Please model this.
Amino acid sequence: MWQGLLNIFETTGLMMAVVGLLLINGLGIFLVAMQLPGTWLILVVTSLFAWWRYDSADVLMTEISMTTLIILLALAIIGEIIETMAGAAGARRAGGSRTGALLAIVGGVIGAIVGTGVIPVPVVGTVIGACVGGGIGAMSGDLMRGRSIREAGAAGKGAAVGKFWGTIGKVGVSGLMWLIAAFAVMVR
Model:
């Protein structure tokens, strides 16, 4: 009788841990939209769960494989590259200078911080701030390089659009990471 009761408690605790993993990883997607390192949260929490379940002989759950963790790591790195480089690539594609592209990255970070404070709507203020900051950074860099206002404006617009699509891309990557982690803990 006691063994059956212990099994019920263990199974209930495990199911609560799985729900907690999925909720925290869902928070990671939200953090990505807020320009915060949500992909890394997903990777760390899933890795901790895998470590916790590593030596378990539980028939209800399979452990998360090292392959799954390596895939999550690769996706986190890809997400960072997409987000970081998209604004710079947008500025360069619009004819901007390297200085403008570099300042688009810096401006995107500063803009996200400022946008979050100025527009207190979750995600919206952060994304708008990052895009505007990236655009201002690219424009500033091109103006410093002696480009005309028209050329600098085109680079700024390219950086802002690139930053927006970079954010969308990284949110997509974090969603894929969530799905992979969910699949790994739920499918035997």
Notes: The chain has two domains: 2-77+174-186, 81-170. The chain has six helices and no strands.
